[in-house]
Amino acid sequence: DAEITQSPRHKITETGRQVTLACHQTWNHNNMFWYRQDLGHGLRLIHYSYGVQDTNKGEVSDGYSVSRSNTEDLPLTLESAASSQTSVYFCASSGDSEAGELFFGEGSRLTVL
Amino acid sequence: GQNIDQPTEMTATEGAIVQINCTYQTSGFNGLFWYQQHAGEAPTFLSYNVLDGLEEKGRFSSFLSRSKGYSYLLLKELQMKDSASYLCAVLDSNYQLIWGAGTKLIIKP
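^ inputs. structure came back:
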């Protein structure tokens, strides 16, 4: 069965460290997204990609970067982790004809001390 | 700005019916989506409305009125497993999903 997986599921790091969260999907979807979810807020879009070599900034992209070198993977990098980036991060993908129907990974809980 | 409002929390009784409302103000509209999210898990797609009216899917139904910027999710014959957060999201003119903060539904026996 097709799936979307994230790793690590849980990570604790220190302020200033670089962190990379991995996302891998086997749906063969062109569209991939990174969201963060915090209490009291809806899902907030960090970065997204509509295909290989395509990346775009979302509403909360400061301090984050992504790269898309193949269809399956969209890693999210925090260049210099800050306490404000403590959150649950979700990766998602969608097909070209189902723009609003997202398939989510299990989430990565990141704590920045 | 773009805004989606839904109640923060609702409580209902097992076996009953509950309606979760969602109002939206977005730049453009290309569909309204409902997702279910159990605590500690990822959101999963429930339903989609692009035209006015009611879409029924088993115990769950979703209604849309584009002129009023309003939708609701109706859950019938509530079961304990329906305890979850329900997220409303609108696909805007740029085909980006704008998300509400979610409604936490608590089911009591």
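Chain B touches chain A at residues 4, 30-31, 33, 35, 41-45, 48, 87, 89, 91, 95-102 (CB under 8 Å). The longest strand of chain B covers residues 18-25.
thumbs up if we can close this ticket
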